[in-house]
Design brief:
Length: 119
């Protein structure tokens, strides 16, 4: 995390990354509250953040299903393959795939028409 702290150079000022407590909590990464009281703001915070984390995990699950090579550590090697760029392209195509599913997305927004994509 020291490398991250040196790299961000104020980027996270006033902002936080919500993550698993296994990674450690610090000035730019917050974690769920451990054992909050039953009727507390801490428990409500944990519940709300848990819903967001589930949605992110679903997205990674879909990425793994559609583009398994992106997660293959034998094929994706730093300085040998453009792993970061391929991941971004996989995310873009996954978003396109989700938008083109008329009934299969988790949000209640109809997909954009092909004309709207061209604009």
């Amino acid at each position: 995390m020291d490398v991250l702290r040196d790299y961000v150079d104020g980027t996270f000022e006033g902002r936080y990354v919500y993550g698993d407590p296994a990674y450690g909590c610090n000035h730019c990464m917050i974690c769920p509250f451990a054992s909050p009281d039953a009727d507390s703001n801490e428990r409500r915070f944990n519940a709300r953040m848990s819903k967001v984390c589930e949605a992110v995990e679903w997205s990674f699950g879909r990425l793994k299903i559609l583009w398994p090579f992106v997660f293959d550590d034998k094929k994706m090697q730093v300085r040998r393959t453009p792993a970061g760029k391929l991941f971004y392209v996989a995310v873009l195509f996954t978003n396109c795939h989700c938008c083109m599913q008329p009934m299969g997305n988790q949000i209640s927004i109809p997909p954009m028409s092909k004309d709207e994509w061209d604009e």
